[in-house]
Structures are given as structure tokens and as C-alpha cells.
Amino acid sequence: MARGATVIAQRLLDEHRIDGVFALGGTGGTTLASQVMRTLPVGFPKLILSTVAAGDTRPYVGGKDIALMYSVVDVAGINSVSRPILANAAAAIAGMVSATLPPPAPGRPIVAATMFGVTTPAVEAARARLEELGYEVLVFHCTGVGGMSMEGLVEAGFIAGVLDLTTTELADELVGGVFSAGPTRLTAAGRAGIPQAVSFGALDMVNFGPRETVPPAFAERRLHVHNATVTLMRTTPDENAELGRRLAERVNAATGPVSVHVPLLGVSAIDCAGEPFHDPAADDALFSAFDQAIAEHVTVLRRHKTINDPEFAIEMANSLHSNIQTSRRKSS
Fold first, then answer.
1. How many CA atoms lie within 13 A of 234 on its CB side?
2. Which has the closest alpha carbon to 313: 109, 134, 119?
3. DSSP states of 60-105
4. pTM of the full predicted structure?
5. What local confidence, expressed as pLDDT, does residue 1 receive?
């Protein structure tokens, strides 16, 4: 059913016969509608009035801009509670399709950058440099869905280059944290031949919710309460070794220009000397496994700096620019 609805929606979209999509339902209707909506372009109006919009919405939204509105009561029938909610939902989708969108930005090539709280200084420095070089920079927060969104935009052809400074979602996928972006993270740009500059940002941590939600199996691990809703767990040498191998394997498979940047003095703001996750043995396991697995054709730049050192970040930005220029020369 979802496949048939998707084909119909795509045909109507191609023929310019629809300006937005609205649906309402419970778990079944929301599942069906969201499967169709996730195939539609970013920016195309999408709204679901749903009985499950107040729960875990990631299975429905994925990495797309689907608006979910909680129905409060069941969507079957109209009553004194549902009447104004339905009216508001109708007004919301009507507003989306009738709104005057801002004109497109001047034709600057778009670069994607990945960021976390503990790598923010690096991404800010890299973004400033890339903007100087004439790029528009889209920053994705690595909360699982952030990485999924970036990979989706790369696949859709929006992105000219990827500054994948923060690859922390690989750790959540490996260990079972809450910010996994799935098994295909760090693959879309490589498959598409999109230029990349990649680093090890925040691979020192796995993410969980509030302290009491950390699985009992990890009770004796090194934990750091980042805030009231996020608890970080330090990755072990064994986990880091596997992460180094996985990062290398995905970079090795890239069909476009790629460079890997190694911050030997720390992969996050709390992995530096004197900080709670500083663990030279774990970092050495990460980098050593990567070195053993990385292919000879990949450019690797090792620096005795922390990842948030402005010089390290700016070098990454310059390398990405160089990789983009190399790609353009090859395609011309």
C-alpha cells in the first residue's frame, strides 16, 4: 500500500498537481503517511495530525522535514475537542502551501558540516573559513537524526562537499547509544563521489538519556552527566579500535577525493588533558586501528593538536576546499 501511495504522490508532484501533503491517523495511518512523505523533497509541505505525535517520532520523521501535530483525542469523528484541533491542522497545512518562500540564496556551493557540543569550537572555526572561501555551510547536530538528515541531503544531490568533523554517531551505532544514525552513516558521500574531509570528533563517547536511563550493563563505566537529559559514556580501547577500523573502511570505499584529519591530543572538548574523558590508551587504540586499516590512496594528516584547535579546524576546511577543487577539475 505504501509503495502504491508513494508512486501516486511522486507522479502528482512531477506533474505539479500537488502543493503539499496532509494526513491524519493513529499508528497505522501515521506509518503509511510518513513512508510516503519521506520520499518527498525537503521543503515540500508535509503535515500529519497523529495520535502518536507526542511519543518517539523518529520512526516516522526519519531525516525529513515532516511536521507532526498531536491530536490529543482519536482522529475518528469530530467532537468538541477535535474540532478546533482539526481546524488548526487544516490552517497549518494551508499556511505552508500558500506561504511566500524567500528567494533562493545566491548560487554558492553547499557544504555539510557535522557538529556536537564538544566539537562546536572546531566547526565554528571551519565554517568561518569555508564561508570566506565562498561556500554556504549547513551544520548538522550529530543526534542520530542529524546524521541521517545529512546523508539524505547528500544522496539527494544538495551537497558539494562534506566536512565530517564529528563522527560520534558511529560510536552510538556500535555500542547501543541513543544517537545512532544507522549502519549507513559515513557512506553517502563516498558512494556519490562527493569530496570529504573527515575526522574523529566525539568518538570518545556514547550517548544516553538522563543518568537513570543508562543501561545497567554500563553501570561501572566512566560516565559524565552532560546535562539533565544527556549522559555520556567513555568508549573503551576495544570499542575505539573497532571504531577506527570502521571509519577507515568507509573512507577507503569513497569514490571521490577524501582526506582524514587525526587530532592526536584529543577528539573532543572533554578528551583533552585534564578533562573527564582524557584517555590516551583509548585514543591510541582508535588511531592505531585506523592506521592499520586505512588504504594507501587516502590522504591522512596527523597533527599534535586537539580537535578544537582553530588551526586544526581551518586546515580541515582548506583540505575540503582543495578536495572540491580537485573533483571539479576531474569532472571538467
1. 21
2. 119
3. HHTTS--EEEE-SS-SSS--TTHHHHHHHHHHHHHHHHHS-PPPPP
4. 0.82
5. 60
